[in-house]
Design brief:
By secondary structure, the chain is mostly helical. The protein has nine helices and two strands. The protein has helices spanning 14-36, 89-99, 117-125, 133-141, 150-172, 184-198, 208-218, 233-240, 245-257, and strands spanning 76-77, 85-86. The chain has a two-stranded antiparallel sheet with strand order 1-2. A hairpin with a 7-residue loop joins strand 1 and strand 2 (85-86). Helix 4 (133-141) packs parallel to helix 9 (245-257) and helix 5 crosses helix 9. The two termini are 54 Å apart. Residues 1-40 have low confidence and may be disordered.
């Protein structure tokens, strides 16, 4: 059975109700007339139904409430939860303080704000029995990616970007690449360009050919490190089997961007 769905926050006005009630009443009378004057031949009536067809609500921007019919281009869904739609980046960002409370993919829990990278390093360095503590120092001096096989280095460069844009969306409300409903490759290329310009972040064997190979890997849907798929901290831990991997990826991204995602 079809249902008339009204947009959230709107009420049926009195005038609209009177018009609807009048239409509904007329349809009921037509139905009764049909019952009182059946087809004399006993054949079923094949004419159009006299019942009104419910009209579905026109999709609207979750921020400015402009209807799709009044917009020059299609509404874009939130790249994180895929539940709400926006007409522009400006509206998406303006709505973030409210939307972020409910912005979670189905079945996931809200993430806690990440620990400051510097505090994390200090805490890790205090754990003298932790064999992975030296890896954080290598990220700081630019030798971490040199210690990895090429395939693993590519994956962690790609995943540092993927986790960074997720953090920026979750904690700042900044939608970039996939989260802005765009092709993620151009934004990833800008990320690589910033890393190259910064210097001391990418492995020493990095060059034009290696960059092309990394970009090709980044859009290979057969790989887990795929730009076309959003990723969260829990996904990273599960894939790498390393509870410290999200911290490593965040630190790599901080080396590229020059700041951590919380702006501290």
């Amino acid at each position: 059975m079809s249902r008339l769905v009204l947009p959230s926050g709107e009420n049926l006005q009195d005038q609209d109700f009177e018009e609807w009630a009048s239409s509904s009443s007329e349809s009921s009378l037509d139905d009764e007339s049909d019952l009182e004057n059946p087809n004399p031949d006993g054949a079923p009536d094949s004419g159009p139904s006299s019942k009104p067809t419910p009209k579905l609500a026109d999709p609207k921007c979750n921020a400015c409430a402009k209807a799709q019919a009044s917009l020059p281009s299609p509404l874009q869904r939130c790249g994180k939860c895929r539940k709400v739609q926006y007409c522009s980046r400006e509206c998406q960002k303006a709505d973030w303080p409210t939307h972020k409370k409910a912005c979670n993919p189905t079945g996931t829990k809200p993430q806690a704000q990440p620990e400051s990278a510097m505090n994390s390093i200090l805490r890790m360095m205090s754990l003298t029995d932790n064999p992975g503590a030296d890896q954080f120092a290598k990220i700081g001096d630019g030798t971490y990616l040199d210690s990895l096989p090429e395939k693993d280095a590519f994956a962690q460069i790609i995943d540092s970007y993927r986790l960074r844009i997720d953090d920026e969306y979750v904690f700042r409300g900044d939608a970039g690449g996939l989260y802005a409903g765009e092709s993620p490759l151009p934004d990833f290329r800008r990320y690589l360009s910033r890393a190259e310009k910064k210097g001391g972040v990418l492995p020493k064997w990095w060059g034009r050919e290696k960059r092309r190979a990394c970009e090709k890997t980044a859009v290979d849907k057969a790989q887990w490190s795929d730009l076309n798929c959003a990723v969260e901290k829990a996904d990273v831990i599960k894939h790498y089997g390393d509870s410290m991997m999200p911290m490593k990826l965040r630190m790599l991204a901080e080396e590229v961007e020059g700041s951590n995602v919380t702006g501290m």
